[in-house]
Amino acid sequence: MKSWFHFGLPIVCLVIFGCRGRVEDPSTVVMIIESSPNNLDLRQGTDAQSERVGGMIFDALVKKDEHYELQPWLATSWEQPDALTWVFHLRDGVRFHDGRPLEAADVVYTIESLIDKAVGHLVSAKSGSFAAVERVEARDRLTVVVHLKRPDAELLFNVSDGLFGVVPRGSGKDFGLHPVGSGPFKFMSAVQDKEVIVERNADYWAGLPPVPAGAQRIEKIEFEVVPDAITSALELKKGSADLASNVVTLDMVHTLEAAPNLKVESGPSSAVVYVTFNVTEPLLKDKRVRQAVACVIDRQAIVDAIWRGQARLANTLLPVGHWAAATNAELAQYPHDVARAQRLLDAAGFPADKDGVRLRLTMKTSTDETTRLMAAVLQQQLRAAGIELEIRSAEFGTFYADVTKGAFQIYALRWIGSNEDPDIFRYAYGSGSFPPRGGNRGRYSDTRVDALLADAAASSDRAVRTKDYVEVQQILAEELPGIPLWYPNNEVVHTRRVEGVRPRGAGSFDFLREAWVR
Question: Long-range CB contacts (< 8 A, 24+ apart) of 86-91?
Fold first, then answer.
């Protein structure tokens, strides 16, 4: 397996002609991202780049802390006078980047545009997260009242950072082309497949710790789109880019650590890498086929090789230590076992032909280098059980469009941030979450799961909710509409002129708000 990785960074360092020059303004930093955000309007953007870059531009009502608990942000407090009513009290003095005050009417409009197509004319995968909302009203300038059709304990998470951003009232479906938020950075410009540029909001309401003597705040960020991991590594080594968060492969990170101008920050992540099956596909309808795929994947070998051990195996989508996460002992397990995979395929009606092939499947991935390497290893591993796996890689926009419309058999991606709450199970596997109103791209449906999710959302008792969510995870571990693979560490590579880089568990770019340059 090592042969996949020893391509040698020094060998390709001759090919530097595509790398850009150093930005002269010392308060400007260049950060590499793998693809353009699909939509910087957080009501519509659901890919990682949209939520990460959009999170720099917009503010949410509440903010997740490092333990996934929700803390005040734009909403300084909230209460539930009854099971069908949420009341949010907003922070006074917050302004949008164009100078308009952020008020209750803006929050009302933001939510209304997600539940009513006539408001804002949006079609959004996030609409399903607000399906329980009956109506929203502004009680006064700074008080928002949300009336529900049914109890929904997940509402608070769905108005949190990365998932939600308050927009000015009247913002339409094309708002993401020129977004105006209230966040720590202002949108300046964007060129598809090239860059997004943001500038610090000097009037931001949230305070910042002082910077050390001789240092200065980051005033401008140029998010440079570099889909190729080798080129990204070269730009970092050359110094023509300052930062890259979870962009280059771990093999490259290991090489870059030796560069005198670079530093690597590493830490646990809540993000989870997973594969999803299209359960409507004839070859994948039988859960025994999906279980066979799980049995033949040697996850630890992949973690050791591709991730250099910098990842933890996952058996659920929820992060390690989450209050609703099922334990390994509570879940069906699929340790690497080729013989078991073959027995499952035999039982499902897929005997080996004269060439040893039982069935042929196709996996779609983005052109992200680590994902492509992983897919290539999966291709090798599945062959041992008689499964021929074809890999089809495409640039992220094309790949994401395909998986959203169900044009796949298997795909590989990662959940980032949205899996920090058990509402991820409704979003990813609920029958009411088929695109475009959710993220159930594999079209999985189970009445037991739907009933348990509804019961959990309706309860304010965490013990009841935990019991329901554990049972959901047990069903999913048996049915396997998707396979949680591992939690990769956060790996932020940056030049030494950038300091104060403290990666967040969800892999967000929040650290840029407080970082500084010398």
Answer: 86/145, 86/146, 86/148, 86/155, 86/156, 87/139, 87/143, 87/144, 87/145, 87/146, 88/61, 88/143, 88/144, 88/145, 88/146, 89/142, 89/143, 90/142, 90/143, 90/144, 91/142, 91/205
Q: Residue 80 has what pLDDT?
A: 96
Read off the tokens for 140.
């006064």
- Tell which residue, 245, 242, 208, has the closest CA to residue 513: 208
Average the pLDDT over each of 18-22, 416-420, 434-438 and give the range with the smallest value. Answer: 18-22
pLDDT of residue 44: 95
**HSE of 446 in the Cβ direction (CA atoms, 13 Å)?**
23
Mean pLDDT of the chain: 93
Amino acid 140: pLDDT:
98
> In degrees rounded to 5, what are phi and psi of residue 44?
-115, -30
**Dihedral sign from CA coordinates of 427, 431, 432, 435:** positive
Give the pLDDT band of residue 11 (cuts 50, 70, 90): very low
| Angle in degrees, 0-180, between the axes of helices 338-347 and 287-296, rounded to the nearest 10 | 170
Q: Are 146 and 132 in contact (CB under 8 A)?
A: no
d(CA 219, CA 214): 15
Q: List pLDDT tens digits, range 35-75.
A: 999 999 999 999 999 999 999 999 999 999 888 889 999 99
Considering only CA atoms, which of 436, 375, 368 is closest in space to residue 410?
375
467 three-state secondary structure: helix
Q: Which of 315, 296, 405, 298 is nearest to 361 (CA)?
A: 296
